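Work package 3, deliverable 3.1, input record:
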Amino acid sequence: MSVLQEISPNVKNMKQLEYVVLARRASQIMEELRKGARKPYSEVIDVSWGDPHRAGVKPLSFVRQVLAACLYPELVNSNKLPVDVRQRAQRLLGQCAGGSIGSYTATAGIAEIVHRVSEFITRRDGGAPSHPENIFISAGSQWALQNILKVLVNSKSSPKTGVLTPVPCHCTTTLSIMGLGAVVIPYYLSEEQGWELQVEELDRALESAKGVCNPVALYVINPGNPSGHIQRRKSIQEVIRFVSEKKLFLLADEVYQGCVYGEKSEFISYKRVLAEMGPPLSDTVELASFHSASKGFMGECGMRGGYVELINLDPDVMKYIYKLFSKDSCAPVLGQIALDLMINPPQPGDPSYPLYNVETQNIRTMLVHNVKRAFEVVNSLPGFCCQPVEGGAFAFPRLHLPPKAIQKAKEVGLQPDTFYCIRLLEEAGVLISPGCEYGQKEGTHHIRFCIMTSEVMMEELLRRLTCFHTQFMKDFS
Amino acid sequence: MNSERHNCQLELRGAGGEEKNTTLIHFTSACTAASLCPPLSLLLCFRTTTTTKIKKKKMSQQTVNGVPSRGKVLTLDNMNPNVKRVEYAVRGPIVQRAVQIEKELKEGVKKPFSEVIKANIGDAHAMGQKPITFLRQVLALCSYPELLEDNKFPEDAKKRAKRILQACGGHSIGAYSASQGIECVRQDVARYIEKRDGGISSNPDNIYLSTGASDAIVTMLKLLVCGEGRDRTGVMISIPQYPLYSAALADLGAVQVSYYLDEDKCWSLDVAELRRSLNAARQHCNPRVLCIINPGNPTGQVQSRQCIEDVIRFAKEEHLFLMADEVYQDNVYAEGCKFHSFKKVLFEMGPEYSSTVEMASFHSTSKCYMGECGFRGGYMEIINMDPEVKAQLTKLVSVRLCPPVPGQALLDLVVNPPQPDEPSYTTFMKERTVVLADLAEKARLTEQIFNKVPGITCNPVQGAMYTFPRITLSQKAIDKAKEEGQVPDMFYCMKLLEEEGICLVPGSGFGQREGTFHFRMTILPPTEKLKVVLHKISEFHLRFTQEFS
């Protein structure tokens, strides 16, 4: 008999991701290909994650040069690297204990980096003040989010703690909420309005929680993941008024703030809007805003660097948040440095600037192109309808599946969109994820794929998708 | 699958709520008057409230521009009560004071010392230990692969870098890896374990890479803890213990079940004491997990093979899940002491044990000869875990996305170091040997010097990176501490910090027998500096004893 017959009910309650099935099959297929199996494709394209490097986007030279010099300080004295890179590395090493990135840092991160994060926020938000003591750097933004959720979720309370969460929503957050034993209260974004967040829907969702759980927080993702929507100022203001009125803690996931493609779209942070709304709101609404080194044009997911800024929190509660972060020792130092480089890139006049500028411009052009192409091609396919992708890393088109396909999926015991994704993987070697993973209105189906890819990969992806989809619709018509 | 998903989600109940303006009654009532917000005009925009503001807070709720001000949503009264019980001594108040003193020194404040020596944490590089060249060369190549063209880097370093990059998504260490870790790294870890354990097989599927060993430890505990009331999971931990355990248990609301190590027998573990502790705990909880730290932190003892066998037998008899924290496995110094992994002993005890006892073993890149704490690399190996539970574990780790990839790459190099026929071998071995030889020397030195001081008794540092000497404190000192509102050894350590600039962690942060006092100090400072530190502490101790005699 196993000791582990019983395990944490919260962990058990976390939903099993559809992705696991897909990923397992994808690695089997890759193994088969390696062993020489004949397939209509020679490699699997994996665009299931918001992971630019995996999808063929090249790392920025400046970032990797500085990291290399920090890793191997002999490079600081070599002329292989530009002088500003070497200076930057030297300065960063000077800010590490013992001059090595192999030492632990302070709990919230290297003090100088935390300070520069606060300066970055102030700059970004048109001067709204940011204070280093309110910032915690963590091993990715999800880690910080989990810590804040942990403080919010009262594991002993009855009824359970609830968190208002968008639908669709990327799954790590919903899993975290469930893993803490809290209740996910879904509010639906309006697909027809380009995935807009509507306050009436928040009202409805809050109402639906009555008697079921105790809602304490509202989680928003802007730019949206997977929805790709960017909130306008007015919408943000409404949300802020809503949380103030309903006494909710606001969790703003803003990791895609550097990924904005729509011509008329602009990212505005919750913090900025809150500050500009003035007192009493700006002095009272409790806000946690998250950002990450994994996204943007840099896309350094593997480094695990992110941060949370906490606003208007009770100082007594802050003490416990500090303890919670200190238990994790510190964020990986390379992740902290990646974050620092993201918010303080080379400036005109620096030796690294011309190359940095070319590389980032190329990525920008590529992404704008990808978004346009994905939108055009997907919308040209029968049964697909894709809202404009204003920002973020994903396209999340709606898929009108023929009844026969839905019937077939039922027969094989799969969600209809998972069925579609499995077929796409088998027949075209493309790994994407199904809409059911993120939540969707009953009876609707979607797929999500990353648009932060190289141009070549995007064209190949769209080509394979088009071929497959045409055949699929024929097969099930 | 579907029904499970809906467990925790509310169903959509038709669009458009009817009572749009209702505030939630049960929530409002949770906000007590004490937690109401200060008058808003008095607050600076977004500044964390200072003490004066807290005083103002006591004033009644007011209105600004006709809008009622609101109390905080998140207060001491309604926050997760488990989080309030979290204490992490190695980064506790004494360390925060040390940072403050450093700042004062920088600002030119005169002190009886010119620098703060932070001997509170096992952070080798912070103490001046140099990184191992080979490890850093490979990582630099992984970071900036253009350097592969550079002939200054040895061929074997390039070969490793290429192999690691090959295993990364898009050939970049900037891509996410699988949540369990990069497959080829897990294979290398498994091979390393096999070699370490004399050929006992290890399956890469049972290896989970992590963000430092602490992440893996917390994850396992999170998976294991369940039940309510008398059925709540109890977790047995040693006293003294590493405070990560007590902090994680507090956080999870698990029951801490303490068993005491025997200080008089060099902090050894006695099964009779395990049994005593277990039986006592069974009165009020359901003990299901036994944590062992070997080599010990903070106590530095290395368990004998016999002792490990006894523990395994006990775990089997009592049906306990074993968690073996073995992060100091390569830090063994004392003559006659040898590290035996729990896994090896388990398998040598035969199938009766090796096929039944469930276990997790933890390791890290932060200790040993490399001391690369900043990379947050680590792994655990799980043994005999039920496949369904393992699936749950895999799901749980997916929430973290993945461990830092440079830490995974580093781990790969540690478990697969340069071989005798490779160009980096000689330098690598030289660097490695020097670090470990130095540590052994420092372990000896520490015990020697401390044991000469009346009022300090110190067990040999057989392994790990710390000494945990016992200090005798007079009643007068204890009374004085009470007066200051501090536990006696915190009072002692604070005074040492203020007078000598040396930062230690008081024994109370690790747990100790009632009425005994200790502190933990790392043996990591460079030998000459360590000597100075040891002498300064000795002198301080004598002074302190005199002052409170």
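Chain B touches chain A through 140 residues (CB under 8 Å).
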